[in-house]
Amino acid sequence: MAIETLTVLNLRWCKFEIPNNTPKGLRLLRTLALMKSNVTPEMIDAIFSNCIHLETLELTRCIMHGVLSINAHNHKKFKELVLYCMPNRLQIILDAPTLECYKYEGFVRILDFSKVDALKEAKLHYIQKYNWRYYDSSNMVLANMVAYTGVHVLSTTNIFLEAFKERYIEGEMRSPIFKFLNLKEFSILFKAPNLCTLYHISEFLKRSPKVEKVLIDIKEFTFEPGMLWIIHQMSYMESSNCEFNSIKEVTIDGYKNHWHELDIVEFFCGHAKSLKKLKLFMPKNIKKRARGLDYARLDYIRSRFPGVKVEV
């Protein structure tokens, strides 16, 4: 193998090692993807000491305990870090001034991105723990929040959104104060168990004044708003006069003709003043499709907001 010209390396179920810490060939490596491999701090240090042109590091289902610490301070091309399904990794410490894209799937973990200056895109596929009734990850989500306030593209799950619920702060019921002033595209994937409603979506978007595209993924989820929505949130939403002046396109993927989904449709049509198109995609699985569309309410929404093209 012409290892000296190797730029992309994908390995699975392998022991990855840099012999004597001086691999001539790997100095041209731009993409390294490891799957189901043992990862050690020494290996990570060797990668970033030798692969000086590395742009993307992907670790999927790799075995690593404790802290993942990456020192890419002197790297000028390291742009993307991907971490999928590494449950034994408890913390991430990252010194990577040029990192632009961070993709993560797994339990919420504490991270230190204080030395990351260029992050533009974050994909945070948080997974709920099995003992979710006794485990609230919101504090960890909030502890990491500063790292993502400057991104332009954010894709995440309802676990991220739930962290914005009101809580006691210095003796008063308040919502956490974070703003996403650069955010242009927002995607949210809903999975059960889930306490989020239209209220939580709206409250997050209020913090993101430049959002242009919104994707709500409910292919594997059906809204079941409880008493909190009926007693408090619904009346608040009905009296709300908030406006979203940047949102141009909204997509609901997994639309099943649920009444709360239509609440969301009507809300965006009424409050997103720049909205031109709202797309509703039905589930591909016929068993999950709605029995019949509520054409009466859809027609009412279309007639009330003729400037918005509602597509089913």
TrEMBL record:
<dbReference type="InterPro" id="IPR053772">
    <property type="entry name" value="At1g61320/At1g61330-like"/>
</dbReference>
<feature type="domain" description="At1g61320/AtMIF1 LRR">
    <location>
        <begin position="5"/>
        <end position="285"/>
    </location>
</feature>
<protein>
    <submittedName>
        <fullName>(rape) hypothetical protein</fullName>
    </submittedName>
</protein>
<dbReference type="InterPro" id="IPR055357">
    <property type="entry name" value="LRR_At1g61320_AtMIF1"/>
</dbReference>
<dbReference type="InterPro" id="IPR032675">
    <property type="entry name" value="LRR_dom_sf"/>
</dbReference>
<dbReference type="Pfam" id="PF23622">
    <property type="entry name" value="LRR_At1g61320_AtMIF1"/>
</dbReference>
